[in-house]
Design brief:
With about 600 residues, the chain is of the alpha/beta class. It contains 18 helices and 23 strands. Helix content is about 25%, strand content about 15%. Helix 8 links the parallel strand 11 and strand 12. The protein binds 2-acetamido-2-deoxy-beta-D-glucopyranose (3 copies) and calcium ion (2 copies). The site of one 2-acetamido-2-deoxy-beta-D-glucopyranose has 10 residues, from loops. Belongs to the glycosyl hydrolase 13 family.
Length: about 600
């Protein structure tokens, strides 16, 4: 920042009202750091591209498709886990944090991936899974044997005796995420161990400084391999409450939400989720990132945090006045507020408001509409709303996150009980598994309308294809004159060139149950207006009631698949008619 700009900023901080001040500060800054306006793209490696025909995606497959990511405007790709794993939870059960899963490739393949990504100026972010390892990890095996240095690497406990029967019972009533007790008896060590996820995912004990140190080693190891940062998995469950003065763990209270005693929601999760220690741990990891940058230079290495938690908790991950935290705690509001049948303009408004009104000053927003744990965005919001949602995510301020296939409007696969592999579903039964399964959003990525959707040359893919692959695929959508992919690319391009989208302020409203509108504005630049109809019938709106300062007509920059309006035409803001699923991005010049 130039001296004069700094001076202006300091004066501004003293004199201006907060909102106006932010505008000037934003206009004054030369550019934002790379991650603040980034287009993040989540790759689920097992399902992205198979290079050797075994039906399973792999690193060489990803490397062969990096040009595609570049072409659709991605800044950084984050990869779900690629580390050695028995695949009980498809890589979220890591048996060696320092090596690559053989079905996915080798360390050299990973280096080739990074090299190619660097050539294309794409950043690669890895999934960091801090809460647990696999039970096949050598750390756990040593801990079972109480080997020196590993005795307390995991959360072990003798359990309780039932007062009446005298039988041994788990230390507490805590439930795992994938149904049933969070405690598992280990015969060899003669103690229970804690697992917030599957039995094969024992929780690491973060009250042991050796564990904290070991996991920082994991971060430094991959930073040395050239990654641009980490997306940290399941951060709210890292720490649990400590045992009481008698060495016993307290029970969670009943939630009253369900009668299903194996479902984690049967109990509250106050003792095992959202502890303050988790926030402190993220601050320590940020220090690791910043130390690395200080020593090795280069661009900012980022921390993205997975947390489904109330805003007052989530926002603390950003850090406070004295300590830096995560660059971006993921914002899942557009998933949680629009769950099931509540897809409406007012729930979008609530989702946006609940994030922006809680965001600490000077922090960067982000918007996520899907991942490998949720049903696909097009299935949740409706295929017709694919563009409206993709466009919204790119019009809102800050970074955007795309889960692979969202740019195509890919929908859920239909997976029978026989084909089901997700532990969240396999731990239930054939009558109820569809409530729990995460397989439908993990089906192979759709490259073409040909065999295995171009994902694999093998006879069989690890999960069957989704039914929509003949139409929702890269090849078809690239050649169609209008497609979800083309709308997506047009939006990425607009965001890259628009100062208003990168730096501007925001105003938004639900004009009806179906129509959501956003205005982005910045002194000295054209304003940008998004208007989307996510309902099932035509709507006519008057944008002058939303913002009296808008001119009588606006220029159409991007229209979607449902629209028949021509780009660069001028549209009157009164009596503006929007077909079902139609979404437009307009500007003021
Ligand atoms: C910021 O966080 C650190 C680490 O948790 C804590 O020690 C400090 O008191 C906090 N400062 C403020 C101003 O909240
Ligand atoms: C949405 O539906 C799923 C599956 O039927 C259910 O488990 C979940 O509780 C519902 N969520 C909301 C917010 O209603
Ligand atoms: C979205 C996401 O990454 N979810 C993961 C959270 O952590 C558990 C356990 O590691 C995984 O099973 C989920 O897939
Ligand atoms: Ca393969
Ligand atoms: Ca834990």
């Amino acid at each position: 920042m130039k001296r004069s700009q700094l001076l202006a900023l300091v004066l501004c901080l003293g004199l201006c009202r907060i909102q106006a001040c932010q505008d000037k500060a934003e206009a004054a800054s030369v550019s934002k750091d790379w991650w603040e306006t980034a287009q993040f793209y989540q790759i689920y490696p097992r399902s992205f591209m198979d290079s050797d025909g075994d039906g399973i995606g792999d690193l060489n497959g990803i490397t062969s498709k990096l040009e595609y990511l570049k072409d659709i405007g991605v800044t950084a790709a984050w990869l779900s886990p690629i580390f050695t794993s028995p695949m009980a939870d498809f890589g979220y059960d890591i048996s060696d944090f320092f090596d690559i899963q053989p079905e996915y490739g080798t360390l050299d393949d990973f280096r080739a991936l990074i090299k190619k990504a660097n050539e294309l100026d794409l950043k690669i972010i890895l999934d960091f899974v801090p809460n647990h390892s696999s039970d096949e990890n050598v750390w756990f095996q040593k801990s079972v044997k109480r080997e020196k240095g590993y005795e307390d690497f995991y959360v072990w406990h003798d359990g309780k005796r039932n007062a009446e029967t005298g039988e041994r019972e788990p230390p507490s009533n805590w439930l795992q995420a994938f149904r049933g007790s969070a405690w598992e008896w280990n015969e060899e060590r003669q103690q229970y161990y804690l697992h917030q996820f599957a039995v094969k995912q024992p929780d690491l004990n973060y009250r042991n400084p050796a564990v904290v140190e070991q996991m920082k080693r994991v971060l430094r190891y991959w930073l040395n391999e050239g990654v641009a940062g980490f997306r940290c998995d399941a951060v709210p469950v890292i720490f649990e409450i400590e045992p009481d003065e008698n060495g016993q763990y307290l029970d969670e209270e009943l939630s009253g939400l369900t009668d299903d005693k194996d479902n984690r929601n049967y109990l509250k999760s106050e003792l095992i989720e959202n502890r303050p220690e988790n926030i402190e741990m993220v601050y320590q990891w940020r220090q690791v990132m910043d130390d690395y940058e200080r020593i090795h230079g280069g661009y900012t290495r980022v921390l993205l945090i997975e947390t489904y938690a109330p805003p007052d908790y989530t926002m603390q991950f950003y850090g406070n006045r004295t300590v830096k935290g995560a660059h971006l705690p993921f914002n899942f509001n557009l998933i949680t507020e629009l769950a099931n049948n509540s897809v409406s303009a007012s729930s979008i408004k609530t989702a946006v408001y609940n994030w922006l009104s809680n965001l600490p000053a000077g922090r960067t927003s982000n918007w996520v509409i899907g991942n490998h744990d949720q049903r696909r965005a097009a299935s949740r919001y409706g295929v017709a709303n694919t563009d409206a949602m993709n466009m919204l995510v790119m019009v809102l301020p800050g970074a955007s996150v795309t889960y692979q296939g969202e740019e195509l409007g890919m929908t859920d696969g239909v997976i029978s009980w026989e084909d089901t592999v997700d532990p969240a579903a396999c731990n239930s039964n054939k009558d109820i598994f569809e409530q729990f399964t995460r397989d439908p959003s993990r089906t192979p990525f759709q490259w073409t309308d040909g065999t295995n959707a171009g994902f694999s040359t093998g006879a069989k893919t690890w999960l069957p294809l989704a039914d929509d692959y003949k139409t929702a695929n890269v090849q078809t959508e690239s050649s169609d004159s209008r497609s979800h992919l083309k709308v997506y690319k047009a939006m990425v391009a607009l965001r890259k060139e628009s100062k208003t989208l990168q730096y501007g302020s925001i105003k938004y409203a639900a004009l009806s149950d179906d129509v959501f509108v956003v205005k982005r504005f910045l002194a000295g630049s054209p304003s940008i207006v998004y208007v989307g109809n996510i309902g099932s019938s035509t709507a006519t709106v008057d944008l002058s009631t939303f913002d009296v300062s808008l001119p009588e007509s606006l220029t159409l920059k991007v229209s979607n698949v449902a629209s028949t309006k021509t780009e660069n035409s001028n549209l009157k803001i009164t009596g503006l008619s929007l077909a079902a699923g139609e979404a437009l991005v307009l500007n003021t010049s």
